[in-house]
Structures are given as C-alpha cells and as structure tokens.
Amino acid sequence: MLITCPYCGPRDVSEFAYQGDGNRTRPDPASTDPEAWNAYVYDRLNPAGLHNEIWQHAGGCRAHLAVVRDTLTHEISSVRFAREHGAPAHGRRKPGAKA
Ligand SMILES: [Zn+2]
Questions:
Q1: What Pfam families does the database record attribute to this sequence (predicted)?
Q2: Is the pTM of this model over 0.85?
Q3: Of 2, 49, 52, 82, which has fewest CB within 10 angstroms of its CB?
Q4: What spacing in Å lies between the alpha carbon of 9 and ligand 1's midpoint?
C-alpha cells in the first residue's frame, strides 16, 4: 500500500504510523461530561468502506496526515495535512453519537 505524502510523494506504508480514527472530536478539556470523554476515548467506527484515518509520516517528514482509506480495498482516495482537515472528506461523527 502506498500513501502519497503531500511533502514527500508516494511512499510505502511501512514509513507511516497509524495514529487512529480521524472521526473523533476531542471534548472541551474543561468538560467533566463522562459520556463525552468515554465516547472520545473508546468509541470507534468500524466501517466496511471509506474511513477517515490519521497517519503520521514517521519515517519521513513526520507530518500528520488525514487519509480517507477504503477498508475493503485499501484504496486511498484522499490525503491532506491533518491540520487542514477541519471536516473529514468522508462524513464525520458527531461527538457522543453512536456508531
Ligand atoms: Zn512526508
């Protein structure tokens, strides 16, 4: 599987580290709502199809990337810098929403 880093170009997936589900939204750090924190820490989507993911180019420029990957085919349809990905390209789960 190749991931096209916006800085470095196409690179083997072995250069990247999976950083997690890109659908999560961190609650306000001052929040004491246990359900919001529980959802942030433990709830994960497990779609058969397009999935928003965060990867780090750990073996390259070290940039964090927002990747849309098809979990069935591993085809990558979008790669952006994570800092630019206010809303993922493929849907977004509302905080606390059930999968
Ligand atoms: Zn890179």
A1: SoxD
A2: no
A3: 49
A4: 7
Q: How far is CA 63 from the centre of its chain?
A: 13
Class of domain 2-84: alpha beta
Residue 78 CA, ligand 1 centroid: distance in Å: 15
Ligand 1 centroid, distance to 42 Cα (angstroms):
29
* CA 6 remoteness from chain centre: 16
The alpha helices in the chain, defined as continuous H runs, are 34-42
Q: What is the pLDDT along the chain (99 residues), one digit of tens a residue?
A: 999 999 999 999 999 999 999 988 889 999 999 999 999 999 888 899 999 999 999 999 999 999 999 999 999 999 999 988 664 545 555 545 554
Distance CA 75, CA 7 (A): 20
The single residue listed with the structure tokens 């599987």 is 1
Distance of CA 48 to the CA centre of its chain: 15
